[in-house]
Amino acid sequence: MTNYDYSKLPELPTSVFLANLKRPAGLKDDWLEPKQREYKAKEHKTWDILFQRQLDILKGRACEQFFDGLKLLNFDSGGIPDFKKTNKILKSITGWSVVPVPMLIPDHVFFYHLANKRFPAGNFIRKREQIDYIEEPDVFHDVFGHVPLLTNPSFARYMEAYGRAGWKALDYNHLKALSALYWYTVEFGLINSIDGLRIYGAGILSSAEESPYSLEAKSPNRIHLNVDRVMRTDYKIDDLQQSYFVIDSFEELFKQTEERPFDDIYQNIGASFQYASSAILDTDHIYQRGSQEYALRGGHTSGAIPV
After folding, report:
1. Spatial separation of the C-alpha atoms in residues 54 and 13, rounded to whole Å
2. Residue 124 pLDDT grade (very low, low, confident, very high; cuts 50, 70, 90)
3. How is 222-290 classified by DSSP, letter by letter?
4. Which of 156, 120, 163, 186 minimizes the C-alpha distance to 6?
5. What is the pTM of this model?
6. Three-state secondary structure call for residue 26
7. What are the structural domain ranges in the chain?
8. pLDDT in tens, 134-184
């Protein structure tokens, strides 16, 4: 077993391809900005509009741990949260902190921060005309969607373990497989509760359209999480999901990944995904076999109604 030094940025094997992201001038290899921006009044207003809209939509849809985190971090005080105040609370609960970055950062840098209990958050907020959708994650998606659940010890442990898993994925040159795991859990995961399925994925929590769709639409599949299967499954980054994966608890999520060395997965998968994002397998534990109507009609590009 390789012993990695998580206190340093992982070295990039020559065979690994990363997105061609240009680091802004003046930033070090960790891509961190010196401090959080001082936001203008209209930018704080944009946060407040998004915050209230999502709170109204997420009632009865988001998991209780998300609402617990919002309260613990005092996110209902108005305006974009001050990272210093947030970090004082967050560090006292799980040891995590939020750090400002200028934009989407390279995978290996992202792994490095997660492995050291730092969550990188975009140091900008969408413009008012982008209120419904922004391609690159902004401070609302990153802080509202991700940070509340970092107050949950089991979920926080999963995020740290995910970051550390990045070193091995780089060694095997299988970043896509590990990215699929993040996508279907951290970004678009659902969780069982005594009241039915609830949302915990940040990509859903921060989306007015996907929040009701993920739980109530007839189009998508809803399948219980199997790590091996998910890491072989393609995903869409620019439309509503064709499949959602469900966990019973954050403890289960952590256990499924912490006890899984991943070596045999990486040794037995190809460069491409094995399963389409709409696939249903004989081995799946299925909550709903979706009609896929929305995707078959063409999704967003066709103007199809999410049903």
Report:
1. 41
2. very high
3. EEE--HHHHTTB---SSS--SEEEEES-HHHHHHHHHT---HHHHHT--SS-SB-TT---TT--EEE--
4. 163
5. 0.96
6. coil
7. 43-302
8. 888 999 999 999 999 999 999 999 999 999 999 999 999 999 999 999 999
Which pLDDT belongs to residue 271? 85
How many other β-carbons are positioned within 10 Å of the β-carbon of residue 286? Answer: 13
Run of H or E residues at 214: helix 210-216
Q: Is 282 exposed, middle or buried (0-12, 13-18, 19+ CB in 10 A)?
A: exposed
Pairing status of strand 221-224 against strand 286-288: antiparallel
pLDDT at 1: 54
d(CA 72, CA 124): 23
β-sheet bridge partners, residue 197: 192
Domain 43-302 is of which CATH architecture? Orthogonal Bundle (1.10)
